[in-house]
Amino acid sequence: MLDFGHGFMDNRFGRSNALRKWIKMARNAVGGLSFIRRMVRHELEKLAAEPWSGALIADFIEGRSGEAYGITSDEKETMVAKFRQCNAGIPSGTSPLVHVALAREIMDVPPDVAGSVAECGVWKGASAASLSLVCERVGRKLWVCDSFRGLPDDGLRRHEGLHTGVYGYYKEGMFAGALEEVRANIARYGCIEVCEFVEGFFADSLRTLREPIVFAFLDVDLVSSTQDCLRYLWPLLVENAAIYTDDAGDLDVVKVFFDDTWWRETLGVSAPGYVGSGCGLPLNPKCSPIGYTRKRTRFDKARWQRAPFLYYPEESPKTGP
To answer: Is the pLDDT reported for residue 3 higher than 80?
Structure first.
């Protein structure tokens, strides 16, 4: 697979239009075959950073995500290209591949389930721009939530990534993106028409939200900010809705999702857990920044599969009269 970032993506045994044009250009160039070989090597070197991206992108494009909305493979391929444009034009802490993972989740929400999408912690607006394009296509509002003046004070608390071996600190005001700057970025690269902006620190600003939410993405870095988001967003989540975060590698943040005492005292429910704890979802063989939890208040057999190596009492042969 070649790097999707330049349009060279494998469409399940086919070629993208960008790749066809590129090969035609190369063949017409002087020393065309040699040129192709050099470019392929160049693309493969870049691919080393995200070696699974081609397969994951192809699966998104040719898979069933968005089928219920009538979204075609061509539309999804165009959307991926626009995600890359968002990241090329706006400083971003998440890759286009992450944006694809988030888009897939939103597109998998049934159209008859009412609700909006929320993003908390938007920095300069790159991922919000990408999500706004998805929301435009599926007909949902995007709540863009941020202080728009950077992180709150974290008390010089050390953050450690056990899997990556990275540590560091957050400083008050880091990752600031002014409201007008974020608006301008989304207007240029995304769809500003579907966006509603919620300004302020989450402990105060998220109190104003009242609508059902079908998906939320948190990139808020701090334990306190994560708790504030969960406190106000969780009651608004519809059944089976997911909350993704960009802090899967920070175990202090991840612990919040397993803290049964906090969940019971704050929300009156058991802790939901977190998929991707410590090293993220399998977007990359080394690690990825994202993981998720899902709101499930009841067990629905229709949403689960059975395994041939497990025991199911109702399948046991009946004994006796």
So the answer is: no
Interacting residues of 188 by C-beta distance below 8 A, sequence separation 6+: 89, 129
Do 142 and 116 meet the contact criterion of CB atoms below 8 Å apart?
yes
CA-to-CA distance for 250 and 263, rounded, in angstroms? 19
Show the domain range for 252. 73-299
Written as six digits, the tokens of 282 are 């399998």
Over range 76-88, report the average pLDDT. Answer: 96
- Do residues 99 and 219 touch, judged by C-beta distance below 8 A? no
| pTM given for the model | 0.83
Give me the percent of the chain exceeding a pLDDT of 90: 73
In this predicted structure, what is the pLDDT of residue 39? 52
First to last CA, the chain: 61
CA 182/CA 36 separation, integer angstroms? 39
Report yes or no on 239 lying in a domain: yes
In a domain, 61, yes or no: no
